[in-house]
Amino acid sequence: MGFFDKIKAGLAKTRDALSDSWNDLFSGGSEIDDDFYDELEESLILADLGVETATRATAALRKTVREKRLTQADQARDALKEILTGMVSVGEPELNLSTHPSVILVIGVNGVGKTTTIGKIAKQLCDQGKKVLLVAGDTFRAAAADQLEIWAQRSGADIVRQHEGADPASVVYDGIQSAKTRDADVIIIDTAGRLHNKTNLMNELNKISRIVERELPSASREVLLVLDGTTGQNGLIQAKQFKEIAGVTALAVTKLDGTAKGGIVIAVADSLQIPVKFIGVGEKAEDLMPFVAADFVDALF
């Protein structure tokens, strides 16, 4: 299956949810009127773009229709695709791994597929010939380090871990020293998905960030937030909270093959102006795909 076909298949549930309304909306001969815009906005909200993003997209389409003097609904289809592509084209599409070593700090609530995403990224980087070190900084969740160790074995990455309940900052410090010794190209740090409250989580992440800054002051660093696409607008709420406490620089949206809420990718990128760098459309390592805005929007249509 080709690259685009895999994205297309992964977004099948979202596309199916949209197809009936969009087929009617954009059918040849239909006129662009107020009812057209109302139905379009409703369909975008149902695809989980959210009210704000759906309203912005519809308003942008109204403006384009006026400027280009479009009269038929089928003419608006390509205009909408351009608008949605622009909304989700935020920042650089690839991870910044420009230094040796580079650091990826991976955050997200429990259950979103965070550890699995780390494993898939590690596998892809190892396949590219990079030396990858995984750091099991989620010491609060039972078996998190065991799960990460399985992915280390699958991917060919090294791993640094301690006992359950260990101080995550201590594990990160050991991991960085090990990375220096082993001459690693990329350090990927797993973090706790949930602590007792927001303050504890913020303190823990700040502590880890200070250690990375102190030990690797010149290293490029990505803070990658993993979101579960099936949670829809709840994912947007999570992203807003993590952006506030952790300085998120990149997003990975997982489980898009299991939801009709694929529009959340556009909502998060547009609302928070944080680049989506990966989307997950299946279980295999290669099903965590680099995000390409135009391909994503094409697959929705």
Could you give a quick summary of the protein structure above?
The chain is α/β, with parallel strands linked by helices and 301 residues long. The chain contains twelve helices and eight strands.
Structural class: alpha/beta
Instruction: Name the helix and strand elements from N-terminus to C-terminus, one letter apiece.
Output: HHHHHEHEHEHEHEHEHEEH
Strand order of the largest sheet: 3-2-4-1-5-6-7-8
User: Proportion of β residues?
Assistant: 5-15%
Number of helices: 12
The outline comes out as elongated
Helix percentage range: 40-55%
Q: Which parts are unreliable, with pLDDT below 50 for 5 consecutive residues or more?
A: none
Q: How far is it from the N-terminal to the C-terminal residue, by CA?
A: 19 Å
By DSSP, the count of extended strands is 8
What Rg do the Cα atoms give?
21 Å
Task: Give the overall pLDDT as a whole number.
Answer: 88
Major sheet attributes: 8 strands, mixed
